[in-house]
């Protein structure tokens, strides 16, 4: 036992040096004010007015649409799942009673289902909206998004081609997503920069905010950490309460600078007013890296307690599976959930987790078969590639393992210090 503990500490020390010597990017003075913004408002006179119009037997179609939009904004601001479920209820009622404009409500409900990872149900709604005929472009965009989420990339590409318009924001962001899927990160960034410029030209706050955070993510994947940080700050200048941007800065502090104390300080400030299971999972990862077993257990318990809320449905399956595989070592539970997740969302990522679950459970031939049929050559996601590499290494395929390992060294920032140690161990 001592040998493994010593090796683990040595790896952490080595990785700490590697991640801590890259230079300083973040400056707390840039964002300290954003960490003290207080709770988000979850009501208003406007909301109460329209909500008051909804009765059990109401036919106030406009009220349902407006109230659903407000609930969705409250979910984005607070992370509270119940607001997303309330938006779902309002939109389902709107779909039921709409005689005119039903396709728009179907699309809105489909988007709500996407947020809940209910992709197959969302697809049925999108196809129903397509039959109704109105809002054709928006339905095509929606179908592209859904087929990407469901791993049906040939169908997604057809919808991408059908919406081709290099001057349209909606097409540019989807073309960027397609190129990211293909592993063409430089092209992805150029397209997202064009989309961001269009959002800024239109002065649309929501699309600007979305563009800044997504572009920041892509910059991070490309190793352009200064640019990533700058765009998270841009997002916060528009929305000082934006938890996603704050989490992005915390990741820079942790994964790039090795400044775990600052990363934890940022995450603690987020968790005061924003509640999401993945936030606690990140805190647990940083605690593991720090060797703080008490904080690790505290954060993991918070993650599991929150994610057990049935309202989350399948939203956190991938996180839970990964925790079963690499944290609690409950391989049978991981395999059962991975089988369900791959059925619900048959993407290379989901199949990668399924293959890795088979592998950890000792069903190595089945794991390799899943890799060959559903994963190999179909994704560039670093974590999935790491899972493949571990399976290939066990089979003695050292050539392909080495090839993947070399490619993953460039993804150390994206993977984070704890996972990067698994890359070094290949």
Automatic annotation (TrEMBL):
Q: Does the keyword Nucleotide-binding apply?
A: no
Q: Does the keyword Ion transport apply?
A: no
Per UniProt, the keywords (alphabetical) are:
TPR repeat
The opening ranks of the lineage are:
Bacteria, Pseudomonadati, Bacteroidota, Flavobacteriia, Flavobacteriales
What Gene3D superfamilies does the entry give? Tetratricopeptide repeat domain
What Pfam families does the record tag this protein with? TPR_8
Q: Output this protein's name.
A: Uncharacterized protein
What are the start and end residues of each TPR repeat?
A: 209-242
Organism of this sequence: Muriicola soli
């Amino acid at each position: 036992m001592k040998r493994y503990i010593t090796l683990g500490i040595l790896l952490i020390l080595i990785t700490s040096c590697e991640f801590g010597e890259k230079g300083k990017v973040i400056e707390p003075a840039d964002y300290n004010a954003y960490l003290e913004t207080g709770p988000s408002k979850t009501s208003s006179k406007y909301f109460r007015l329209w909500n008051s119009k909804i009765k059990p037997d109401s036919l106030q179609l406009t009220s349902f649409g407006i109230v659903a939009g407000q609930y969705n904004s409250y979910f984005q601001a607070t992370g509270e799942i119940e607001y997303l479920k309330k938006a779902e209820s309002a939109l389902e009622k709107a779909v039921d009673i709409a005689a005119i404009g039903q396709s728009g409500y179907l699309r809105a409900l489909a988007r709500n289902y996407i947020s809940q990872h209910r992709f197959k149900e969302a697809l049925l709604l999108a196809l129903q909206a397509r039959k109704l005929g109105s809002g054709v472009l928006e339905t095509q965009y929606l179908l592209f998004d859904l087929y990407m989420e469901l791993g049906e990339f040939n169908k997604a590409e057809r919808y991408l081609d059908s919406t081709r318009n290099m001057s349209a924001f909606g097409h540019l962001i989807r073309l960027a997503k397609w190129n990211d899927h293909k592993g063409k990160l430089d092209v992805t960034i150029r397209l997202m920069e064009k989309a961001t410029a269009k959002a800024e030209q239109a002065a649309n706050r929501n699309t600007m905010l979305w563009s800044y955070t997504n572009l920041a993510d892509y910059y991070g994947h490309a190793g352009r950490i200064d640019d990533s940080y700058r765009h998270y700050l841009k997002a916060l200048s528009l929305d000082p309460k934006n938890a996603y941007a704050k989490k992005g800065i915390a990741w820079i502090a942790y994964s790039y600078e090795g400044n775990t104390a600052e990363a934890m300080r940022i995450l603690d400030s987020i968790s005061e007013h924003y509640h999401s299971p993945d936030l606690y999972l990140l805190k647990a990862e940083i605690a593991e890296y720090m060797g703080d077993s008490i904080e690790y257990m505290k954060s993991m318990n918070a993650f599991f307690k929150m994610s057990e809320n049935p309202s989350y449905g399948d939203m956190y399956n991938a996180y839970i599976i990964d925790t079963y595989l690499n944290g609690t070592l409950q391989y049978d539970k991981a395999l059962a959930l991975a089988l369900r997740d791959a059925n619900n969302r048959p993407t290379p990522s989901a199949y990668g987790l399924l293959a890795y679950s088979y592998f950890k459970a000792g069903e190595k031939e089945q794991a390799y078969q899943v890799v060959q049929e559903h994963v190999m050559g179909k994704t560039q996601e670093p974590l999935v590639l790491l899972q493949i590499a571990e399976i290939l290494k066990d089979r003695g395929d050292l050539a392909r393992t080495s090839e993947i390992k070399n490619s993953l060294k460039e993804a150390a920032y994206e993977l984070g210090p704890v996972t990067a140690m698994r890359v070094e161990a290949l």
